[in-house]
Specification:
alpha+beta; 28% helix; disordered C terminus
């Protein structure tokens, strides 16, 4: 189950963002500092609507009522980017795949390209993305881009609410 991220989830994000095992393949590969964490929490709670370029939708995945992963959809110029982090205690149990699947399902009806970016050494995320039918379409800045066939970009069309 995915639910909207709230201010009460700040500790979940902070815990994941400061764990080098989780951030290893994110951005520069380093744990986030306090300022970056606070910025992302603010973005998650009060950020721009997903309907506009620059907008985001943060979600929390739960298993048996307990948070186990974070998901985010970001409206980029080139489409809707999905991303997810899974708590280390939940690795290897299909939580990443379930979270990504729910993020994509929440975009039903969207006309923008749906994509994810993943470090080529992140075998677990590559398996998640390809298992969901996403295909590698290129590489930029050392990161591979995977797109979901069937979603086409047609301008900045509105994105459905969750």
């Amino acid at each position: 189950m995915l639910r909207p991220f709230t201010a009460a989830d700040a500790g979940l994000l902070a815990g994941m963002a400061s764990d080098p095992r989780i951030t290893r393949f994110v951005g520069d590969g380093l744990p986030w500092d306090r300022d970056r964490i606070e910025q992302r929490v603010t973005e998650a709670v009060t950020g721009a609507a997903l309907e506009v370029v620059g907008g985001v939708r943060w979600s929390v995945a739960e298993e048996n009522g307990r948070p186990c992963a974070l998901g985010v959809v970001s409206h980029r110029e080139s489409g809707l980017e999905i991303g997810y982090w899974v708590a280390v205690t939940h690795w290897g149990r299909g939580i990443g795949r379930a979270t990504a699947r729910l993020l994509i399902a929440g975009l039903a009806g969207a006309t923008a390209t749906v994509f994810a970016r993943v470090h080529p050494d992140n075998a677990a995320s590559i398996a998640v993305l390809t298992g969901l039918g996403m295909r590698r379409t290129g590489t930029a800045d050392g990161v591979d881009r995977y797109e979901l066939p069937g979603f086409q970009r047609h301008g900045n069309s509105p994105v459905p609410s969750p």
